[in-house]
Amino acid sequence: MTEATSAAPAPDALAGVLADAPFVRLVATDDGDALAAAGLLARALRAAGTPFQVRVDRDPVPDDIADGITVTVGVDRGAHAIPGTARPASADTFAVARQLGVDPDPVVALAGVVAAGSVPGTDGSGDALDAAKEGGLVERRPGVAVPTAETPEFADGLAASTLVRTPYSGVPEATRAALDDLGLPAEMDDDDHRRLASLVAVDVVDAADATARSASAVERALRPYATVGDAAPVETVGGYADVLDTLAREAPGTGIALALDADPSDALQTAALDAWRAHGLAAHRALDAATIGRYDGCVVARVESPESATDASGASRAVLPTVARLLRDFRSPEPVAVAVDESGGQLAAAATESRGLGDACRSVAAELHADGWGTTDRGGIAVDNDSDSDVSDPDNGAETKSNADITSALAALREAL
Length: 417
What we know:
Elements: H1 11-19, E1 24-28, H2 32-48, E2 52-56, E3 69-73, E4 81-82, H3 89-99, H4 106-115, H5 126-134, E5 138-140, H6 153-160, H7 172-180, H8 190-205, H9 213-217, E6 225-227, H10 237-250, H11 252-260, H12 266-288, E7 291-295, E8 298-303, H13 312-330, E9 336-341, E10 346-351, H14 357-367, E11 371-374, E12 378-382, E13 390-392, E14 399-401, H15 406-416
Parallel strand pairs: 1-2, 1-3, 3-4, 8-9
Antiparallel strand pairs: 5-6, 7-8, 9-10, 10-12, 11-12, 13-14
Helix pairs in contact: 1-3, 2-3, 2-4, 2-10, 2-11, 3-4, 4-5, 4-10, 6-7, 6-12, 10-11, 10-12, 11-12, 12-13, 14-15
């Protein structure tokens, strides 16, 4: 299925459709922006008394509903979509919710904006930032955006953060040792936060294998918007973005619950942070242990199934996109980064700009009778490592033998790019 890139719908037009709908099904891509946007829209529908259902899918397809409508979030498919291509889906959804007569949570919207790789106040998120400031929900301060509190919890948060890539990322003990050298107090003031930010910024860009892109990539983790009081279940907007982006793949049910709940329970917050922490540590460690090769137009990291896996293929599907994004942002001099798990038969790709990655992955997968998915700037392919397995042929409905392997899929994807 081809990924379109049309402009976002007018908020009042979509709001008008939703206001009259007897039932709404929301289908979001597996990323933090789409998850935040779906949560905002679901909250608005709940406030309006409209029944709804939310699910996360790595390649959403709008379902036919006899008595209702489907809204795809993060892709431009179906009659009603919030594509998130022209600007973050969360920014558009914030406007739609307002048109429905609801005061949407601006902190969730801003978290989605950061998860989309944007900056609060830009790309259509000015209204959300203004609302957050006027409501006393956020304040800009020096430092680094992590979801956890200040020392000692901060060190564990920094080790797991996927907004940065330092020499000690993925290793809490090494992160604590690096912070110990600063002599930070339990409660940090602005000067302490500045020293911390300086340390992280320098360590990111001075890493032996850091690329020029890492200097700009680390910026979205610096000078964060801190959440005030109980405005959010985490300490910073950027940290919230990191958690939502992780949960969208690692634990989508928990992610939906977190984005939907204006006052999440302690148990839900703990489950969300535990899943985020395990995911972040596994992604960094997988990249640490990867064999990296550079090709014309892309860099490839060959990784083992993540150590946190209870099911190798499931864990690979969750962690590989994060590995690819970390590789793209902090270690790849090429515009495309690919993380490959040969034993799990999967790969994930991330690009610095819209390059039709999802379409490329689907095209390659169709030729190999495999499974492909993605958006304009990220995608994935999964093959069945059992060469004797039967695979459904979408062209004629017959069962056909697949002899694909992920190495041949990678070669075909490189050629397609």
